[in-house]
Design goal:
Blueprint (H helix, E strand, L loop, with lengths): L2 H5 L1 E7 L1 E4 L5 E4 L5 E4 L9 E9 L10 E7 L6 E2 L9 E2 L1 E4 L25 E9 L9 E9 L2 E14 L7
Length: 172
């Protein structure tokens, strides 16, 4: 393990909507779900967002790491998405970024004493991945998002979820 991946904490969240504002605050609607819906005969699931939140101790302020987000099936195999046309090959769903850990900045109206608080202000990275058109995943199956930091993975850096078939709303 790299020193940063050994010290990092990673949390994942599925939501109906998620965004991070310029100050690093998160805006989440319908967060913490463990399932994604799919209408019968629809080409993909309902839209959803994936939030990946990494933090590391203050010693890593400004450090960079390679973060890889992978979609896997229940057997642990990478899920491949179809090409844009039938003659194009499928592509495994792997998202890679090299973010820099930022220092949480207190609001300007708060004055923090310098007595050891640095130990509580971990560096952090927030990655929000949007799937506004959903994904072509099979209803009735389980999947998981897994994260690797500097090519290292941990079991607790995984979020399992199910794709369930939705029934169309009936007129009343």
């Amino acid at each position: 393990m790299s020193p940063l991946s050994d010290a990092a904490t990673v949390n994942l969240l599925l939501a109906d909507y998620a965004a991070a504002d310029p100050t690093g605050k998160l805006n989440i609607i319908g967060g913490g779900v463990a399932m994604v819906g799919r209408l019968p005969n629809a080409p993909a699931t309902a839209p959803f967002f994936l939030g990946v939140f990494l933090s590391a101790p203050a010693a890593y302020y400004g450090a960079e790491c390679l973060v890889e987000i992978r979609l896997e099936d229940k057997a642990g195999n990478l899920v491949s998405l179809p090409g844009a046309s039938p003659d194009l090959p499928t592509t495994p769903l792997v998202i890679s970024q090299t973010p820099k850990f930022t220092v949480p900045t207190p609001p300007p109206h708060l004055r923090l004493p310098d007595r050891g608080l640095k130990d509580y202000l971990h560096g952090r990275v927030q990655l929000i991945v949007a799937f506004p058109a959903g994904l072509p995943l099979n209803a009735g199956e389980g999947y998981s998002w897994s994260v690797r930091v500097d090519e290292q993975a941990r079991r607790d850096w995984t979020l399992e979820f199910a794709v369930l078939e939705q029934t169309p709303a009936q007129p009343s």
